[in-house]
Amino acid sequence: MNDNLTPRVDRRHRGNHSTVCKCPDPVYLRPAHYKPLSGEQGRALRNLMQHDRKTGYWQVRRRVSTDIRFVILRQACDRKRAIRPEMRRLIDALFVAFVNAADLATDIITLNISKLAEALSPRDENDNIIPEKAVTVSRVSRAIQLLCLFGVIDAPATEWDLMNGCRFPKHVMLTEAGWQLTGINMDRLRAEQEARRQAIRDGILQPGETLSLKAARSRWYESCRNRTILSRRTRALEGKQRRRLEELPFDERKRQVAERLYRSLGERAGTFSPQQFEKLVWQQLYQLKLVNLNAPETPPPLH
Fold first, then answer.
1. pLDDT tens digits, one per residue of 138-163
2. Given 192, 221, 242, which residue is the final one in a domain?
């Protein structure tokens, strides 16, 4: 036996502490005060989780991590081994949180990695996180990066936060492949997404807001009433101003309209050239119908 041989360093252990996963089976529970999700998004959430009426506990109903996508794309993602069971269970819990927080119009999921890790961590009787079983921020971050590799979610490269020397995405977007993992009708989902985008464009809904159809219609009717009242008041003021100015000579009408416009512009008046300001004055004169009342007037200047 050669005594000059040095013993090999054991690189499989990191000190004397345990390297076992602290929370091997995390679960995301949707807060009870949250309103139920409607349409295909609500169906997706019900497909992922179900409430056992006998035991009173929530349990995972559909495990997205078992989808064959995570097998066939392994080589394309530069992975040699299968995903470990602890990571698969974390992905299942994360997906419930993603579907719950996804904006239906944009598919954007606003992230707070630390809050998300706290929501996945088990709690005691006093609703306090158990430190020995808490889900770590780094573990959630690795799961998000893994889902990005498989094309289930998308993280914009320009939207990242820096915390404790690590970079975390500010938000991610649930891709169409991610929605398909929930087992919903994609045609219905696309129709609902387009309807929500149209409602946002029409001003019925705000981005990220969820309203029932009755509440959305009531808001639309109220918005129409407000616009009608504002339009009527504007026309009344313009009519009153027109009746006061139409008796004056044209040059005086033009001067008073210019004075009123100058006061309404405030500090922005200094940003207009004389030609631009004169063009605005003529637009006001035409809007108030104060041109060509009794006699031919000087036509507006050409710019």
1. 888 889 989 999 999 988 765 566 65
2. 242
